[in-house]
User: What shape does this take?
Amino acid sequence: MKRRMESYGKMVQLLFMNPVFFIGISLLLVFIMTSMVLILTGAPPFSVYKQIFLGSLSTGSKFGHVIKAWIPLTLCAIGLLYTFRINLWNIGVEGQMIIGAVFCTFIIRLFPNSPYPIMILFLAFFSSMMGGALWALLAGFLKTKGGVNEIFAGLGLNFVAQGLILWLIFGPWKRPGVASMSGTEIIPKGLWLSLIERTAIPPAGLILTFLALFVTYLLLKYTKIGLGLKAIGLNPKASLLFGLKPSLYMLLAMVFGGGLAGFAGCIQVTGVYHRLIPSISSNYGYLALLVVMLSNYDIRLVPIVSFFFSCLNVGSIQLPMVLHIDSSLSGVIQGSLVLTFLALHALHRRLSTPKEIQPS
Assistant: This one.
């Protein structure tokens, strides 16, 4: 009986080590768990799935909204890959995206009627990346020099960034004669990113996002920087023996992550809202954390998972109109997805770890 149980255990272990089986069982369990959550909330699962699909992919304009959400979400997720590689939790992505949007708006307000809009847009993109990188660098210095946990540093700076953007919108940058949550004045049309007709997708943002994916893939996989980040993430003390400086690499990872988040903020200003609004980040910074974790920190899966979450966010808008269900249900679906995937990954890791080194 004991031998039979051991053979069954080995069979299960081999099945879970098979990537095709693991992906299949993961999708099945996620579907079951999500459906159970929907039933408990009183929502018909198949009707919800249908409306989310119709609300996100049924027309060109809806697909365009999905892509406009996918671009900043993917950029934030790519930036998080650098910090997760070195075991840093960059919770401050939200604030870094806000500061990037602020820097972008500042440059546009300096040169609103410039005869060289391409140059101003380039300067706005560059300054937004610098703004996000500097904001992330501040959290990095608090971590490496002040001993402040990066989670607390990031959260604190998020609140500061949110306070700053509200002060600007209701203070120095308020619209003439009125200050409201609708944001600042609309930026000149000459400084809008060009859009594809019918879908309203900014092609420049799409191209630059794919470029960021490609460069990050090469950087993390084939360069000394990527190898150094991985080595320090695995064992900071041992990495010192090879001449690596953990604090320097931590700051470098924060700069990369913050720069991409700031760039996402600039896309929001120039390609989506065309002004600075209080909710310019749209919580993409926090959502990007889930995207990276569900992608198992694999850059090849990041754009796919990000696209799924974008569809979920956009499609859920249709739920109140058709099924009279609150659109916040998409957050419940996201939560059940995350919990299921984390449980499966924990099981996969335990089965793939030899018994003699497993924690008791």
Remarks:
- The chain is about 75% helix and 0% strand.
